[in-house]
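Hello,

Our lab assistant flagged a job as stuck in the queue for most of the afternoon. It eventually completed. Since we weren't sure the result was trustworthy after the delay, we are filing this so someone can double-check. Below is the sequence as submitted and the structure that was eventually returned. Let us know if re-running is recommended.
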Amino acid sequence: MSSVSSTAAASATGAPNQAGILEGMNPSHYNASNPLTLFIIQASIILITCRLLHYPLSRMRQPRVIAEVVGGIILGPTVMGRIPGYMNTIFPAPSMPLLSLVANLGLVIFLFLVGLEVDIRMLLKNWKVAVSVSSAGMILPFGLGAAIAYGLYNQFQDSDNRISFGVYMLFIGVAMAITAFPVLARILTELKLLQTDVGLIVLSAGVGNDVVGWILLALTVALVNAGTGLTALYVLLVSIAWILFLVYIVRPAFIWVLRRDGSLENGPSQSMVALTLLMVLASAFFTDIIGVHAIFGGFLVGLICPHEGGFAVRMTEKIEDLVSVLFLPLYFTLSGLRTNIGLLDDGLVWAYVIGVVAIAFFAKISGGTLAARLNGMVWRESLTIGVLMSCKGLVELIVLNIGLQAGILSTRVFTIFVVMALITTFATTPLVMWLYPPWYQTKIEAWKRGEIDWDGNVLSSEGDDSGATSGQQKGVTTKFSKVTVLLRLESLPSVLNFINLMAGERLRPAAKVHKSKIAVIQEEDESAPSIVSKRPLVVHGMRLVELTQRSSAVMQVSEVDELQERDPVVNVFRSLARFLNVAVSTSLSIAPDSSFAEVLITKASAQSSDLLLIPWSETGAISDSPDTQGASLENRFVSHQHNLFINKVLDGACCTIAIMVNRGFGGAVALEKTLSRTISHISIRSRKAADTLAPIVPVADPSHHIFSPFFGGEDDCVALRFVLQLASKKNVTATIVRIVYKSDTTTEPDLQLPPPAQAHRRDLPTSLSTSNIPTRLSRDDTTTASSQKPSVSEGSTDVESQNPDSNFFQLMADSLSEELSQRVVFETFETNQPLHYAIFKAREEVGQSLRNAGDLVVVGRSQRGHGLSQIREELVSVLDTLGVPSGAGAETRKCLGDVAEAVIVSGIKASVLVLQAGGGALGRSETITCAGEGDFSSGVVGLSGL
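-- returned structure --
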């Protein structure tokens, strides 16, 4: 008791308690001279509660604002406030002004970010449909809101409140008509609708709705703060003058300073960030002192900031984390603390709750739907647009808090509208997913392109008299000519080298003649044969960027076209691929990392690609890793996230997939280089020479050697044909070995494995058995595979002649042209250790030349046929002999298959290419039939018998 009294006395005299809790201080006791302690307690409770609530809500694709408001309701008088002494201890009334001050400061900066996010250029590009949808989405809700405002004003407004009904009606109408643009952009991005017709219309209309809504709200606040109508007019005129001053004087001067500083090209410097925040605070100060809320000043500065060069995105990246992680939870939790669900205590109040929610849904959905329908959208698309426009989100809560602080709303009406905002925001995502699912998006896009009728029937092309289906018209691919490749910065050199290999031989260009001499020699060249350019390989580069929870990521999605033009990886690939006899196109997509596989598969399908090339990550990350210093060659195979991504692509793609594990293809692997420096007297004297990097010499021998073991199955057949396509280039040689399992064959005495690989793998188990190798041997189950296996002895020549794998292999060997037979060798080897021999032969074939441009081992992902179980069992002994009983890990083994696993772990000095057949790639029987009708190099043959 004495310690508490001494603490109180010290507080009364102004002397701070130096020893804190050691002298009996209560940390939850509010001290006006030192409020930081209680503020830390309050902020910690709020942040922890909001994060815990956001985790389950995010699984339902709900925005974070839902968790923050619900957290405030739980922490407020509705739930926790019922505990005796809770509110007076944790959220005492004297401490609320400080909490509100910090939250409102964050709100000013957040509205600045909202202004940055609003791109007026999008509104100007789609002004017709944006104006119609935005106007209809505001007029009808505003009118119905004004109608219900009469009942709310007469039923719940305090008798001593000086707010007139006209101002009250205006505010309720604005609260009903407004749309939450930031939350809307997030929902569109997560549902992958931002680049669709629906997304563009909603986003454009949301920009107009947002700007008009804030203007009307500013007018409402000005009317509330003005004593007379003349004063309100003065406030409005001063506000218009301030807007014109910012647009025509401040903005040009600001852009001039940014150009001089280089911030438009290189991103905002620290000085420009400070200048921008000073502009935000100055504008907020001015709008506050003239009678308009301070947040409008921050919003206006955000609107005038330039978007050129990605300045708005980079500025958002600088400050958004602190605002979204600390300031916004405090503000919206304050909304929850002010919300008391207990005030909804009778039937009349709940009737108004239902009425307000019904009007919010009906008015916004009806207005947006009718306007979209009049602009040519189908009914289902129009309904989706209307549902999206009904989203209220955090903007609605900001409006409601302004109304509560200004005395327009009572606490009971404030609670009614908070419930409405939560329901409309929560329902938006489920309703959109129900109305506009991915399958319907695919159908409507195909219908608009004229590929199908409204019932989903495929429309035949004009002039087609054959009556064949589209699947039959497409034909079967025997030579890959359309490729989609995943672009990463780390794998760009190897990908470009591989594309150069696929492009084949380039025609030598004719000697150029000066234009002044063309007429002189024209007659002499009339008889010369013209050079016909070869049809180039078509390659589409796909760059994937992760969509994070940050607002800047959403802004990047809306500005993806401009971002694509500036992206260095896209530009380098596009520029260099043009010189490789390749017809190239590129695209950049921003999506959550969990959707990378779906986006890549969809893009490959849209491009009608017959091959999807995926370079295996050098670091284990799906997207580009910003820092590769801690990366190692081992970590690239143990990333669960990357392996899951590869498996999703393998399971979902329709075309053939090639996975490339780079090990010096086109140059040394960057991660294999180690830098070390020792200091000596000589190095100190010659520091300049030591710090100068030696130039990298050009590749002396641009040739490649390919080794491909053939075990059988569709994937191995595709791999064999692909090797022949690569070998059509004159600097490529290849060895293709068919390895046949024979149990009674004696192993060659020199058949030994290479030395154990130097791999230290503490992260993997040390024991391995056949049972825990979940190898994916085929896309069919093993029962089906075994049922197709001949039930005759291994040594029978009848079995060998009836084996489709043997027939295919022999046919490919016999169909080689004379030129190609000089570079490609076919061999057959029988052994009771097929996997051991594959490693032994690979070590003998590749990695022998240190000066060439890199060798390649090409394998099929799945092996099916006779000897299947032997390969599975043999992998255990191979990995155990190599000293890495876990290999690259079970997940990686599922992605790449047994043979690729053994090749990778054995340390063979060559890159590995794993192929999985798909799409129009021929199986064994179809290949035999069609290969006899046409030459292998013909590219595409007709599909028959399907």
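-- support follow-up --
The delay was a queue issue, not a problem with the job. The result is valid. The chain has 40 helices and twelve strands. The longest helix spans residues 229-261.
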